[in-house]
Design brief:
The protein is α/β, with parallel strands linked by helices and 254 residues long. It has one domain: Glycerol-3-phosphate (1)-acyltransferase, CATH 3.40.1130.10. Helices cover 48% and strands 13% of the residues. The protein contains 8 helices and 7 strands, in the order H-H-E-E-H-E-H-E-H-E-H-E-H-E-H. It has a 7-stranded mixed sheet, with helices on both faces. Helix 4 links the parallel strand 3 and strand 4. Helix 1 runs antiparallel to helix 2, helix 1 runs parallel beside helix 4 and helix 2 crosses helix 3. The longest helix has 38 residues. The radius of gyration is 18 Å and the shape is globular. It starts with a helix and ends in an 8-residue tail after the last helix.
Length: 254
């Protein structure tokens, strides 16, 4: 019976997500262009980003899952570099819906996904080809310029999703954007999204997800990126452990 429920939920989620991002998403971007002409760029951006927030929140209800969010009062009005641990693809709508709308520094593969790639581009995000250092350098220059112009960006500094829920080591250079621009880092801890998308399974598994926004960190208070990485990662590791202990289901990765 559980497997049948998961099958129904998976099909429902995939169909609704495709229609929302590719069909309704196309309308949202089109209407955004109309608003830009008649009401200005700020009104258009506000409308599109609000729709992105709605998508992030609704994605979990489509997956028959709930979200418990903490620390939302720590989200500043100014632009930040959102730094979160990475458990599954569902981390993307989770951050967009509950934390901050911003441009993702995403893998090149996502550029081929209709709907999602459109919004990443709209929000100033970039697609990184890890096998092409020259392309990475070029895209990072765009991000630096965007941050200096007041744009928020979102990164998963582990570089890949976790296998067991633990927070992996952060990649060297993952927080250099904050060091170079002086933009504050907003650490975010995530627990539970990996259970929604189990490894070696084609079916989603609905459940509860936890997210905690921690106080912003000023990179100007650190002498090196390595020191900053250690501090921010330690904050996230402790918060992830707190969220794990709150999870009454006792779920674990097989």
């Amino acid at each position: 019976m559980r497997k049948l429920y998961r099958m129904f939920t998976t099909i429902y989620f995939l169909v609704i997500t495709f229609l929302y991002t590719s069909v309704y998403g196309g309308f949202v971007l089109f209407w955004g262009k109309i608003l830009k002409v008649f009401k200005g760029e700020e009104a258009a951006k506000k409308y599109v980003l609000n729709e992105v927030r709605k998508f992030g929140i609704r994605a979990f209800s489509w997956l028959m899952s709930s979200v418990e969010a903490e620390g939302l009062e720590n989200i500043p009005d100014e632009n930040v570099l959102v730094v979160a641990n990475h458990q599954s693809l569902m981390d993307i709508p989770l951050v967009l819906g509950y934390v901050k709308r911003g441009g993702f520094i995403a893998k090149k593969d996502l550029e081929k996904v209709p709907g999602i790639s459109w919004f990443i581009k709209y929000m100033g995000g970039v697609f990184i080809d890890r096998e092409n250092p020259r392309q990475i350098a070029s895209e990072i220059k765009k991000v630096l310029k965007g941050m200096k112009n007041g744009n928020t960006y979102i990164v998963f500094p582990e570089g890949t999703r976790t296998d067991d829920g633990s927070v992996r080591e952060f990649k060297k250079g993952s927080l250099i954007l904050a060091m170079k621009t002086g933009v504050k880092i907003l650490p975010v801890a995530i627990w539970g999204t990996m259970f929604l998308v189990p490894k070696r399974s084609l079916l989603f598994d609905p459940g509860k997800v936890y997210i905690k926004v921690l106080p912003p960190v000023d990179p100007k208070n650190f002498h090196s990126e390595g020191e900053l990485i250690d501090f921010v990662r330690d904050m996230i590791v402790k918060a992830v452990d707190e969220l794990r202990k709150k999870d009454p289901s006792g779920r674990s990765v097989v």
